[in-house]
Amino acid sequence: MRKATASDGISGIGVLDKAVTVLQAVAAQPCNLAELCAATGLPRATAHRLAVGLECHHLIARDTAGRWLPGPALRELAGPHADEIPDAALAILPRLHEITGESVQIYRRDGAERICVAAVEPPSGLRDTVPVGSRLPMTAGSAAKVLLAWAPDGVRAPLLDNSVFAERTLADVRKKGWAQSVAERAAGVASVSVPVRDADGEVVAAISVSGPIERIGRRPGARWAADLLAAATALQERLAHTPD
Predict the structure, then answer these.
(1) Fold assignment, 83-240
(2) Which residues form a coiled coil (predicted)?
(3) Is residue 187 packed enough to be buried (19+ CB in 10 Å), middle (13-18) or exposed (0-12)?
(4) Of these four, 87, 105, 116, 137, which has the most CB atoms within 10 Å of its CB?
(5) Cα gap 134→165, rounded to integer Å
(6) Tell me: the pLDDT tens digits for 193-242?
(7) Using CA atoms, how far apart are residues 21 and 39, in angstroms rounded to an integer?
């Protein structure tokens, strides 16, 4: 019988292989315990024990619905190879939060989803909480519009088939340079987003402000697009001066 090798994706160390299976499942999609068991094929007690252990080491974390998703330790372990945007955002998002008083986030596209890679939340009161690592659809919300507006045609067209917005909306986003949404991703929530570009001018992320409609109104773009554009410019300047 042939021994398992690293090329098989199996180390032969049972608990390690099972833990990696849990990480892979959570990375693919946020999971509650039942979903984690279904995705991994692990018994309920085993899946729970491994997930809690990984959570203790911050390799996975929980969102507001109690689902497991990738944790901050994964980025920290990547060290110098980590995404530069979250680190640069630490100098930008707090000021944007101070100006708006609302939740602020940065999203990057990953296939058919967008991932929150940085966020600052109000300490209390009504808020639109999106934990870092959360995966949201590319079919609704202002950040999705921004990320799709400048995405390649081969990416944009299939996702538009299931989106709440159409190509003409994205054309308007490209014209204005920002997008807004009202109760698209979640009832009672509005947001406004602008693109973040790399040194070559390519859109690599979206920076957003979101909050309850009753507080920020139905025209968040008119209220905060200019502040977001200034924050995006500041972030781009920091990224341009980040050492390779």
Answers:
(1) Beta-Lactamase (3.30.450)
(2) none
(3) exposed
(4) 105
(5) 22
(6) 999 998 888 999 999 999 899 888 899 989 999 999 999 999 998 888 76
(7) 9
Bridge partner list, 31: 68
What pTM was estimated for this model as a whole? 0.66
Q: Helices marked H in 57-126 — which ranges? A: 72-78, 84-89, 93-100
Provide the residue ranges of all domains of the chain, joining segments of one domain with +. 6-77, 83-240
> Regarding the domain delimited by 6-77, which CATH topology (the fold level of the hierarchy) does it fall under?
Arc Repressor Mutant, subunit A (1.10.10)
Two tokens, residue 50: 């491994």
End-to-end CA distance of the chain: 47
Residue 31 DSSP label? B
Rounded to the nearest angstrom, the gap between the alpha carbon of residue 214 and the centroid of all alpha carbons in its chain is 24
**Residue 223 near residue 142, CB atoms below 8 Å:** no
**Alpha-carbon separation of residue 237 from 12, 99, 106, 197, 234 (angstroms):** 47, 20, 16, 10, 5
In whole angstroms, how far apart are CA 51 and each of 20, 62, 151? 10, 10, 35
Q: Say if CB 59 and CB 23 are below 8 A apart.
A: yes
105: which 2 tokens?
A: 């986030």
